Automatic annotation (TrEMBL):
<feature type="transmembrane region" description="Helical">
    <location>
        <begin position="342"/>
        <end position="362"/>
    </location>
</feature>
<feature type="domain" description="Major facilitator superfamily (MFS) profile">
    <location>
        <begin position="80"/>
        <end position="422"/>
    </location>
</feature>
<dbReference type="GO" id="GO:0022857">
    <property type="term" value="F:transmembrane transporter activity"/>
</dbReference>
<feature type="transmembrane region" description="Helical">
    <location>
        <begin position="249"/>
        <end position="273"/>
    </location>
</feature>
<dbReference type="InterPro" id="IPR011701">
    <property type="entry name" value="MFS"/>
</dbReference>
<feature type="transmembrane region" description="Helical">
    <location>
        <begin position="301"/>
        <end position="322"/>
    </location>
</feature>
<protein>
    <recommendedName>
        <fullName>Major facilitator superfamily (MFS) profile domain-containing protein</fullName>
    </recommendedName>
</protein>
<feature type="region of interest" description="Disordered">
    <location>
        <begin position="1"/>
        <end position="74"/>
    </location>
</feature>
<feature type="compositionally biased region" description="Polar residues">
    <location>
        <begin position="35"/>
        <end position="51"/>
    </location>
</feature>
<dbReference type="Pfam" id="PF07690">
    <property type="entry name" value="MFS_1"/>
</dbReference>
<feature type="transmembrane region" description="Helical">
    <location>
        <begin position="150"/>
        <end position="167"/>
    </location>
</feature>
<dbReference type="InterPro" id="IPR001958">
    <property type="entry name" value="Tet-R_TetA/multi-R_MdtG-like"/>
</dbReference>
<keyword id="KW-0813">Transport</keyword>
<keyword id="KW-0812">Transmembrane</keyword>
<feature type="transmembrane region" description="Helical">
    <location>
        <begin position="404"/>
        <end position="421"/>
    </location>
</feature>
<feature type="transmembrane region" description="Helical">
    <location>
        <begin position="173"/>
        <end position="195"/>
    </location>
</feature>
<feature type="transmembrane region" description="Helical">
    <location>
        <begin position="81"/>
        <end position="98"/>
    </location>
</feature>
Amino acid sequence: MAGTSEPAANTRRRTSMVSNPDENTPLLLVPETTGLESNSDLKPNGTSTEPSAAPDGHANGTGAEAQEEEGEERPMPYRQILLLCYTAMTEPIAYFAIFPFMPEMIFRTGVPQSSVGFWTGIIESLFSLVQMVLMIFYGRAADRFGRKPVLIFSLGGMSVFTALFGMSQTLWQMILCRCLAGCFAGSVVTVRTMISENCTKQSQAKAFSWYMFTRNLGIFIGPLIGGGLANPTEQFPKVFPPGSFFETYRYALSTYATGAVCLSATLTSLFGLKETLDKTADSGAKAKSQLSTTEVLKSPGVPMVLSIFGYVMLLGLGYTAVNPVFLYTDVELGGWGFSDQQIAGVLAIAGASQSLWMLLAFPFLQKRLGTGNLLRVCAVAWGLMFAGYPILNEVLRHGSETAFWAVWPPFLVIGSGVAMAY
């Protein structure tokens, strides 16, 4: 009786933890501890109908494997996790690299400056829109064909169309390249899955903290590549003389470099990563243990969490899209009048600041304030962040450039703390 009552008690505790979360509930819960797994595998007395099932859901697990999972923690495969983190970094690099020069690139096609913001928002958002639509497809493909093939396919396509974007000469060419790059940007789903499958319950939190740090690092690196290599004939005339290929295609060097980073991740994934999909598992047993999308959405707390996350991402991505346009727009029209290189510097500072907030401040503040209170603080900070930009424009309009340059760097560093809401 003791052997059958203990699993039932564990199940009740797991369900209770999700049904009644408190302010200190860990944010990185793994599937085994969320209580969202189906109970169809359990008999009424709490025992499993799959006596040899491993804790990770594979029905072919042995008793020794189960004991290893529940007993001592196996070492985290650092090489695999680091390769996956490097792969994860390429998606924000590809996404953010065009932000410093995007407004100028659109303006050079003949679009009035008053319409640059509209077209910038359209082109930048298409990447995320197409990526979102195809997320489920990539997840299902990874379950059917394997994680590694889908990941390599995704990275390879993103490498090509990210590189080609810099050769666009019209709005429609930009839109096409950006949409095609988004079509292949499904690596984020596969990478998260592979990190989870490479780790135990004990090491997942550590691995995913690395994952988030490297993604924020990508936000830092992307604008540096994009802004630092744009207009090379003007920045580096001795290396790229006037009249060369890169004078006609001013932004090709930036996107070629970005595509090369994505290509390097493709190669490291091809030769370094191991497949994590267990194709020997009984598909019938796995199907029984999986919930449908409707059942997941009806789970306690899930709709509220998704609503909050959607709201936060709307603010975050909206700010991300508008920010370069605001920085590029002339002071007389309400912006800051920054150059491509200055925009790259601002975005890089923001990315680095977000990484430091997540790495150093977030663990302490989340533990001290609780998740709910921290979200409330970030909600207030968002309003102050948005209000600060037009206020600083007024400072520039009044000719107080010294005050402007003294205020905006700390304003940006402190304001980047809103990333903790993600």
